[in-house]
Amino acid sequence: MGSSSKKIVTGDAGYVLEDVPHFSDYIPDLPVYFEPDEVHACIVTCGGLCPGLNTVIREIVCGLYHMYGVKKVLGIDEIKRRGLKVAVAGIPKTIDNDIPVIDRSFGFDTAVEEAQRAINAAHVEAESGENGIGLVKVMGRYSGFIAMYATLASRDVDCCLIPESPFYLEGPGGLFEYIERRLKENGHMVIVIAEGAGQELLCESMHSADQKDASGNKLLRDVGLWLSEKIKEHFAKMNKMIINLKFIDPTYMIRAVPSNASDNVYCTLLAQSAVHGAMAGYTGFTSGLVNGRHSYIPFYRITEKQNKVVITDRMWARLLSSTNQPSFLTAKDVIEDKREDEAPTQSLDNPCNQDMSNLVKKEICCN
Q1: How far is it, in rounded angstroms, from Cα 131 to Cα 193?
Q2: CB 364 within 8 A of CB 286
């Protein structure tokens, strides 16, 4: 391994290439810790469907077989009890793109692309009726990246609601007031909402406490259906304006589609990178793209927190300028933000704040 010279066979008619150089001819000179004939590989998937998942599985199997000669891909053994030599390599899988450190998770680009199709359909529906409202619910349990990027890609969205940016319905500056104003101005509007947005409003409205699912995650209510009913109730009670609301939930359509070209290539590189790391003897790591480079990242670094939309960042500001939606900040929110701004901050000379920027550099091993 490590040789990049072409394989040439000479003959009476000159020379021919024995074959086209394969990826295995360019593998970095990493030591091979495991003997391929003794390797029993196991692939475990967690969570639901995600565009690109099949590509990852296929490329792991093909990478092990074609690049290292591993032929045994089996189920899970009792690893700890038997004290086996095991390398555990991960590939970050979340369609919500809420994993820290890495640039993006696989399937995210495809999810945004498919969500945009649903938004376009909602826009056509909204335009086709008097005071039409198209409401689209997309994935985003704790992070609103899909909703934000799909909104920016569409340019037809009038309001985007995500978990990181609380909103309220009634009163001045609320969602209902904005909907009424937008309908008077344009005659139609499109709303995109992430599944985790407004959950605190649902709990208050339904007088229910937080519940957990079988995996220990917070059990989310259907905010899309709830919001569509609330909007209908509000305008029926006002008796000023007749609306035509269409609610679209493309969640399972997005999850089940094949990955697009960008995600397909990304999944291939992630899978092959994980195979190389595992066969070199590394363990407890995940492969991922960090600042454009494929890297090996310790598990604890990607599980210590969740990646979320920063609503004071430029990307969210771009969205607000695109939709012209209000910030939905109440007077209480403004007072609390002002107090936080006036609170004394730690001195930069504090020893505890030194060398923080070097943590990731020390803990990320790049290919």
Answers
A1: 19
A2: no
